[in-house]
Known about the structure:
Layout: E1 7-13, H1 21-31, E2 36-42, H2 48-55, E3 61-66, H3 71-75, E4 80-81, H4 83-88, E5 93-96, E6 102-105, H5 108-118, E7 127-131, H6 135-147, E8 151-155, H7 159-172, E9 177-179, E10 190-193, H8 209-212, E11 220-223, H9 232-239, E12 243-245, H10 247-253, H11 255-262
Parallel strand pairs: 1-2, 1-3, 4-6, 7-8, 7-10, 8-9, 10-11, 11-12
Antiparallel strand pairs: 3-5, 5-6
Amino acid sequence: MIHGTTQLVGIIGSPIAQVKSPENFNAWFNENAVDVAMLPIDMREAQLAGFVSAMRGWNNLRGCVVTVPYKLTMAELVDELSPRAAALRSVNVLRRESDGRLVGDNVDGDGFLNAAKAHGFDPVGKSALVIGSGGVGAAIAWALCQGGVRCLGIADLSETRIRALKAILQNAFPDIEIHTQYSTLSEFDLVANATPVGMGGTGETPLPANLLQSLSAEALVTDVVTNPVLTPFLELARSRGCRIQTGPEMARAQLANLGAFMGVTALNI
């Protein structure tokens, strides 16, 4: 039940119907008698700047989670960015300060590592490949570098995006080897799909099937896609004996980070 006293948080994107965050957050708020509610917001891009301006005067709004396709756009509209969000030019959560200023951060990478560590993955000294260098891919790559990987591979259809992300990471983490060329997956301890490929039952995989056959059975293979839970990529990895991490696992693993940044509570979901 929403009351006049209820503090609000939002989740904004388009489309928004597929996101699971409102039911996860609201179930926790209800079970713990916290007078906060999450609202899904499906916003047209043309009205995004106006909505952000309205957020500054929205007194009972604590913050907003940002999902596709607005993570990059929102980074240009807020008043302040965390150091990693400023480097990546991408946000997935905003906090509204008491004076109306909007502060952005990106905790996608934190959520990814939370989930990976639950599978026994320690990034220190490891080799990882991130497929996709958009908002979520860049955040995962940053978190892996910050976590201490020895070397990082980046794969993307866009050479421009690859070069841009490589430059950001080399500037922030000069001691880590950053590769954009590889002929086998056998040397990677972790392979992460950070693209939408495989969403909605298309049957597609983010890398060619012949290359995926070189996955090491010792690798942790992860996907950010939430529907289906078991993407063709994860099914193939599991058939090769790999440990797998699903998109919903990553989404759930960052709820505490999102809640803490917005100041609603240190969620333990």
